[in-house]
Write the structure tokens for this entry.
Amino acid sequence: ELIAHHATEAGVKEKAIDVWKRAGTANMALPAYEEAANQLNFALDLIAQLDDPEAWRERELEILVQLAQIMMPKHGYVSEAANQIFARAAAMIDATENMELRMAIYYGSWIGPYLRAQHEAGLALTTKFVDEADRRGAAIPRLIAHRMRAATLISLGRPAEALDHLEVSFGLYQQDQNPDFASRFAQEPGVQIKCYQLLGLWMAGYADQALDVAAQATDTARNLQHSNTICYAALHHALLAMWCHDDDLLKAINDESLSVATEHGMSFWLTFGAFFDELLKSRRGDKGAMGRLQAAFDEYLASGCQLWLPLFMAEQAKEYLRLGRSSKASDVVHAALDLIEATSERWTLAELYRIEGEIHLAGAKSEDAAASFQRAIEVARRQGAKSLELRAATGLARLSADQGDGATAREVLQPVYDWFTEGFETADLKEARALLDRLA
């Protein structure tokens, strides 16, 4: 920064631009986002003052992408600040044939629709990105394009396809590991890949593999000491802990993320941390937690985001049901189903139908409950979401058993349970096993 300041004062603008950029890159890695943003903006201002700014357009694009990567965790991934920078970069994209830089700008055009849960639009975008990256053949752009497509496919409820794309990404990452990945991207790409792998693996029925990958992602992020990557890994690890009904792990991971996000003023991660925090507080008897959870949802929606909201609403509905507030739980489920209809974010659909079945059971509506459980099973089977199929099959089998039809209960649950080859210490499989033992 000192060198950049003196170069600026001396009127050596070309030198000053490079050094301001280096200073900004260094502060991004700390992270010291305010300082980094100021330094990168100094560089952009100097480019505008050059006699021939057109010759510096590619460097300007590099700086704009870095600046946007600061705006996303600090102000939100769909913030106006980030959107304006990416729009400025997109308008200049033809100034570079650097595929890595082009892909970073493409990422900026995808992340907004992704976080707004506009997944059909996101699928069209990522199809274009994958085709271009594969055609040009550069490793890092291909890695990023396939990872973006995988993220969209998971939200659409297509985990098997997503895992295929993640295999491509991870293979490219292993071939082209780079020590400064974390300083060049919003999150370290290897950790990004693992985070989506763990989501796909759990949905597909491989809980032990998902837990191993989650631990690897979290450890890698900690070792890098890259705050945005730490929070990114923590979000996905916390989701897995929530799905596995491991509240102790969920609290430990979320507390770490909240600490980092608070220290660096990272509003996006603080919002997700609030979701988990209030859910845990409610489970531990805090009567005001559900109101604060709804307030966090409202704040999230006000930011322009809808990504994964049905998933968190499913957990909200389960908590209302546990608290004996069936009517409120039903309202949440139906609102989540309406949101899925609008966004096509279908990966939580089977779980919502299963919860609907539990709500019907609480109201002594056995036939309606059976229909909801069956619908959940059918959706999970179409999606290849074996973990969600097991949950729904367990619900339907328990209903049949309680009605005295043990044969039907075993017929529903045994084949699903027998499919699994791992995860036998997780809560869902233990519950299914206990029910089968009872039926035996």
Remarks:
- Residues 57-75 form the longest helix (19 residues).
- The CA atoms of residues 195 and 236 lie 6 Å apart.
- The chain has 23 helices and no strands.
